[in-house]
Automatic annotation (TrEMBL):
GO cellular component: plasma membrane
Alphabetically ordered keywords of this record: Cell membrane, Membrane, Transmembrane, Transmembrane helix
Family named by the database record: Belongs to the DedA family.
Membrane topology per record: Multi-pass membrane protein
Native organism: Pseudarthrobacter sulfonivorans
Compartments, as annotated in UniProt: Cell membrane
Domain of life: Bacteria
VTT domain span: 30-156
Chief localisation class: membrane
The name this protein goes by in its record: VTT domain-containing protein
Database matches in InterPro entries: DedA_domain, VTT_dom
Transmembrane annotation, as ranges: 12-30, 50-72, 136-158, 164-188
Length: 205
């Protein structure tokens, strides 16, 4: 695959969206925002279908949130501790919850995904707090649609407004998305926890 070629990306973007956005649900460093924004930029260039990019992004985001929610709701998070990488992820979840706050209100479920790491933190905290599956599912679905629409729209806008290559438009969109999205997310999630509600591992474990 030629990463600088728009035709190559246009043919492959649909296959990148689902695994990347799903993976971001449990491992925030995965660059899901960049992939979704790139999909929007490619749509502006006529290389992808903007509605399909948005739909795939929203569905993958919702499924990822539900997986994390059910993992912690059913107290299965210890499964992660069987592997070294899993323990690192579990430690990262503690840090993400402490940073993004442990509020499990419906507004937070919708808005926290705009903060880096907030999507994982809120899904895990909601499972621990025993939020109703139906309520979480509806809010996660609405949040996923808003998140996907925002990022795809941002990529489409930057792709349409500039005469730069699609990858340059994507980078501009990522920077704008991180700045604006983080600001909006902080406003929505004003309540911040001082301690992770995840059970802390016993000393020596």
């Amino acid at each position: 695959m030629d990463f600088g070629n728009a035709d190559s990306w246009g043919a492959a973007i649909y296959f990148w969206i689902i695994p990347v956005v799903l993976g971001d649900a449990i491992f925030p460093p995965i660059p899901s925002e960049m992939v979704v924004i790139t999909g929007g930029a490619l749509s502006a260039d006529g290389r992808a279908n903007v509605f399909l990019v948005g739909a795939l992004s929203a569905v993958a985001s919702w499924v990822g949130d539900m997986v994390v929610f059910q993992l912690f709701k059913r107290r299965l998070s210890h499964v992660l501790d069987r592997w070294r990488w899993g323990r690192k992820v579990h430690t990262g979840i503690h840090a993400a919850i402490a940073k993004a706050g442990r509020s499990s209100t419906y507004g937070t479920i919708i808005g926290a995904r705009f903060i880096p790491g907030g999507r994982l933190a809120t899904s895990a905290a909601s499972g621990i707090a025993d939020v109703s599956a139906r309520g979480f599912s509806l809010c996660a679905g609405l949040g996923a649609v808003l998140w996907a629409s925002w990022l795809v729209g941002l990529g489409y806008f930057t792709g349409s407004a500039t005469n730069l290559p699609f990858w340059a438009s994507s980078l501009i969109g990522v920077v704008l998305g991180l700045v604006i999205g983080a600001a909006v997310g902080v406003i929505v999630t004003r309540r911040r926890g001082t301690r992770s509600p995840v059970d802390e591992p016993a000393p020596g474990e």
